[in-house]
Amino acid sequence: MKEILISEKSEGQRLSRYLSRLLVNTGSGFIFRMLRKKNITLNGKKADGNEMLHAGDVIRIYFSDETYEKLSRAAEEEFVSFPDEGRILYEDPNILIYNKPAGMLSQKAKTDDVSVCEYLTGYLIRKGEADPESLSEYRPSAVNRLDRNTSGLVLCAKNLKAARALSEMLKKREVRKEYLCIAKGRITKGADLKGYIRKDPAANTVSLSENPNDGTYAETSYTPAGFCDKLDATVLEVDLLTGRTHQIRAQLAASGHPIAGDAKYGDSRWNSELKKRYGIRHQLLHAYRITFPPMKGILENLSGKVFEAEAPFAYLYSAK
Asked: Coil, helix or strand for 290?
């Protein structure tokens, strides 16, 4: 039998999620079956997995030592730090802000992927701020997600409390996220793009609709910030008013101004010319500014602060 005392570091998680992180070599179906059979209990009682954990709670797992070791032992991981630690824009005991290059995943999609989350974990282990043995309780992670080929600022949480605080602020739209992109055509006025987005998970694409019953509301605001005559394009400052999958890319494309280099929603003929003439191989979209609201608590160090990172494609244009 294995007995686990929940610490403050682990509280606030759902029991089933905690067990999934602990018993890494099994699935949710097995975990819920063990809960139903009382092979796993919470505070000496039967649990259904939906309970929220609190400091002082006791989980008992009635497996043999051999079975527990087999189900909880993660495959050997090679913990590697960020390829370029100079891209760390800000760091304190709770969070880290990383300027992600295009081509790097924010969060892994497949088991063998390496993303910002894995690099963050390796970085903190190297610094002595994280312990491989405690990763079942909380694994340092990226809280906001950028598309693989979108560059820019990613918010990373070093601990569970910081992750919850950041997630809550992002959910309430209290953190302002602004982007820069290069869009096709000469755009002289700003606009608000509104509509509804439908996801196609199989194709990893979205489509737009004007029907409120046919998707999730999405709103993007943009302002021209300069021109790029050599590309016959406009530099846009984009304010993400809702955070939907591929929102900026899909809405700009639907408005007739696709983002340069966007393989999913862009102008394929234009993209081919950009690749041939300028070596552009991914969408020119960059999360360049994050503004935090006034606040107290664990993230008080960030209260009212603004962080910026120059777009990697700034050399292609001049400010208006």
From this structure: strand
CA atoms within 13 A on the CB side of 294: 0
Architecture of domain 176-319: 2-Layer Sandwich (3.30)
Q: Which residues pair with residue 156 across a beta bridge?
A: 96, 142
Domain 176-319 in the same topology as domain 85-171: yes
Instruction: Classify burial at 105, counting beta carbons within 10 Å of its beta carbon; exposed 0-12, middle 13-18, buried 19 or more.
Output: buried
Residue type present at position 25:
N
Encoded amino acid at 218, one letter: A
pLDDT at residue 75, rounded to an integer: 52
CATH of 2-72, one of 2.60.120.10, 3.20.20.70, 3.40.50.1970, 3.10.290.10: 3.10.290.10
Strand-pair partners of 178: 239, 289
How far is residue 222's CA from residue 11's CA, in Å, rounded to a whole number? 40
Residue type, 220: T
- Sketch the domain layout of the chain as residue ranges: 2-72, 85-171, 176-319
Greatest CA separation for the chain: 70
CATH of domain 85-171: 3.30.2350.10
pLDDT (average), residues 305-320:
86
The answer, yes or no, to whether residue 320 has pLDDT greater than 50, is no
SS3 content of the chain, % helix, strand, coil (to 5): 25, 30, 45
- Supply 286's token pair: 């960059």
- The model's pLDDT over 216-237, given as tens digits with 9 standing for 90+, comes to 999 999 999 999 988 999 999 9
Task: Supply the DSSP string of 61-74, one letter for each residue.
Answer: E---HHHHHHHH-P
Euclidean distance between CA atoms 245 and 251, whole angstroms:
11
